[in-house]
Amino acid sequence: xxxxxxxxxxxxxxxxxxxxxxxxxxxxxxxxxxxxxxxxxxxxxxxxxxxxxxxxxxxxxxxxxxxxxxxxxxxxxxxxxxxxxxxxxxxxxxxxxxxxxxxxxxxxxxxxxxxxxxxxxxxxxxxxxxxxxxxxxxxxxxxxxxxxxxxxxxxxxxxxxxxxxxxxxxxxxxxxxxxxxxxxxxxxxxxxxxxxxxxxxxxxxxxxxxxxxxxxxxxxxxxxxxxxxxxxxxxxxxxxxxxxxxxxxxxxxxxxxxxxxxxxxxxxxxxxx
Length: 273
What we know:
The longest helix has 24 residues, at about 110-135. The chain is about 45% helix and about 15% strand. The chain has a single domain (about 10-270), classed as NAD(P)-binding Rossmann-like Domain (Rossmann fold, 3-Layer(aba) Sandwich), CATH 3.40.50.720. The chain contains 10 helices and 7 strands. It is an alpha/beta fold.
């Protein structure tokens, strides 16, 4: 522990259970001296174990639908009351595709489902920042981070419409990040994480194949949820005050690889060996 977040206040969206990256971020933020509010949708709170995390970290839980500006405003107002001041860091760790849940192929989406997933996974990030920005709720040199995946840049067929949602999310981070930086000295970044066996990740078809392939492609191997939490903490800290508008790959080097020797060997003729 380095006391990297000593005295800092935050809001963490999306902790569901101990497999969630947001859960790991909350644990690490607590260890580094931060105080924060935990939030998730009411339905998620019923199915998760967030009360355990709240007890462990001395935090309060405020239910909020991240697609509702009214809910977000209430969350931000109450958080500042509970924490005793403006916010220093926010984690947006929210993603959901109804098409994936319903088994709809990317080429035959139900577009009403597409809109829901887009709103939850991407537009919610704009709504959260919109409330924070208009309410002047962030301290100068604060940090806002959203979690993404490199399907926003490359084709992963089974990632479905979540790939489009992540691309939109990353664009919001850049566009809103400009205004937040210019007007309030707040930085906004996204972390593009390795495939990770979170509760949400397990719902993606072929996730085991993703994991195995990425592990063999990445010179450092896949980044774990806890390692992602550590990276997120560094972005919340004052050590990264001038890092903004970035999509930061946290994937063991996968994003810069063309092919690895390990993957090549899987396709080589055994007689050549």
